[in-house]
Write a structure and sequence with these properties.
The protein is an alpha/beta fold and 290 residues long. The chain has 2 domains: 8-210, Vaccinia Virus protein VP39 (Rossmann fold), CATH 3.40.50; 221-289, rRNA adenine dimethylase, C-terminal domain (Helicase, Ruva Protein, domain 3). It has 12 helices and 9 strands. The strands form 2 sheets. A 7-stranded mixed β-sheet has the order 4-3-2-5-6-9-7, sandwiched between helices. Strands 1-8 form a two-stranded antiparallel sheet. Helix 9 (221-231) packs across helix 12 and helix 11 (253-263) crosses helix 12 (276-286). It is elongated. It binds S-adenosylmethionine. Residues 26-31, 55-58, 61-62, 76-79, 82, 102-104, 127, 129, 132 line the site of S-adenosylmethionine.
Length: 290
Amino acid sequence: MRKDISTPQYTRSIIDKHKFTFKKSLGQNFLIDRNILDKIVSTAGITSETGVIEIGPGIGSLTEQLAKHAKKVTAFEIDLRLIPILKDTLSPYPHVNVIHQDVLEADLHDMIKNDYSEIEDIMVVANLPYYVTTPIIMKLLTEQLPIRGIVVMIQKEVADRMAAKPGNKNYGSLSIAVQYYAEAKSEVKVPKTVFVPQPNVDSSVISLTLRKQPPVEVTDEAFFFEVVRASFAQRRKTLLNNLQNNLLSKDQKPLIEEILQELDIDGRRRGESLTIGEFAKLSNGLLKLK
Ligand code: SAM
């Protein structure tokens, strides 16, 4: 039987055979550890009923393990040089469809409507290119796709920020942006040694389970996120200072103070101590000053 694509020897032989050279600018760090791949697949809860969307299949090491469990896999790869390689490595898996496209430009609603109309359980699974992690995840979270969730390998530092809770030093506007749409859990820390070439940073697998609806009631979503960003603009400053410097004007200070008092939120607190519920209350309250 053929070896897994992810074995270091097989990966090397594919790279040599196709004279492939890694592009750092595309975040090309390929996984060569079967245990980590198994962990990703099991965390995502892939079954024979699941349709998977993969981003950046590389030479197909994760795609292969997904294909062994899933009903269908659709993989978006930006690098044209990898398309013939994937045709070769994934030839035993006819239920895998590789699309040569930048995922940020892909119409995922359309793809799901056309290819996954009979599939109820859809997961996004990937070892993401680190240069573009946050835009990809925010696209997946905000487009209201009919997916159960997202399980991805990303830079550990970014995973820690996405999953952080109030009071934690990593808690910030990214934590709230992600947790507004999904339940976030950092699953496992991954050492650099499981990739070729090795990246400069540690990685983590994070799971994001999509919420059916946001955990808080927000009157104006865009303003809610503006309030959150302003509250974290200068982390050492108090909430009141951040709001008057970065959201509203100085002469509105007495009004902001009044609203904070009404809401029972102490303006001397720092943004990092506020829960997502308190940010919702705050943005709904401040809306009249907008
Ligand atoms: N899945 C493979 C693995 O685990 O070995 C490769 C992962 S590698 C970290 C990221 C992959 O994403 C590369 O193959 C890269 O060419 C691809 N990529 C980078 N930017 C992309 C984008 N905007 N859209 C789709 N694929 C992208």
